[in-house]
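Hello again, I could really use a second opinion on something today. I've been staring at a protein lately and its backbone has me curious. Please have a think about how the structure follows from the sequence. I owe you a coffee for this, so here goes:
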Amino acid sequence: MVEDHEDVNAMLTELFEQADYQVTSVMDGVEGYRAFLQNEFDIVLLDIMLPYKSGDELLKEIRAISDVPVVMISAKDLVSTKIDLLRLGADDYITKPFTFEMLQSKVKAVTRRAYGEYATKVQNLTCAGDLCIDADTLVLTFHTKKINLSKNEYKLLKKLIDNKNSFVSREELIEEVWDSITFVEDNTLTVNITRIKHILFELGFDDVIKSKRGVGYMFYYSNSTRS
């Protein structure tokens, strides 16, 4: 969400989080574009009047690299403005003042149109780009390829993806899967990580799990990660 009004930003962030959305919120267009490049989002809420970079400029930049759904927010209630934004690639538009229920209904409608049945599962997926794991089915997908994971493989890979590009200690990973580091052999984690590496290699991801002695493991992801 890119909204420069501090109170509105804080209120909407809190309400969406209470509704079980994961929210990244910033307050100007430059920070909005930076956040978009550094994260994977299911939908963007974008105010038009922003400092440093306007909402319509940011919309153009997003559309140049992504088809993620975008809902525009503005105080302007002009038909011409709405038409211009839709031509630029906005998926929907809401005019201030509005209720949270109105905005949430638009968010649900846009994600339903964009993702179809997938929209009902969006909160259960953990993704790095197009590589996703489903908490309900324990299935790892990359485009049309699907691989079933064991419960332990799912927990480990989810933990690593949740912390992508940062090292996670061996102790944290063991506690994530086995609850206690007391009765688990250190080699057990190594074996599981090796299996995950092999699964990722089958999908075309080579050397994305990095290890550092005395530190732990890291899932390294960038736009050029896949081999």
Summary: The beta strands are 44-47, 70-74, 92-95, 125-128, 131-134, 139-142, 145-148, 209-212, 216-219. The chain has two domains: 6-122, 129-219. The first strand starts at residue 44 and ends at 47. The CA atoms of residues 131 and 189 lie 22 Å apart.
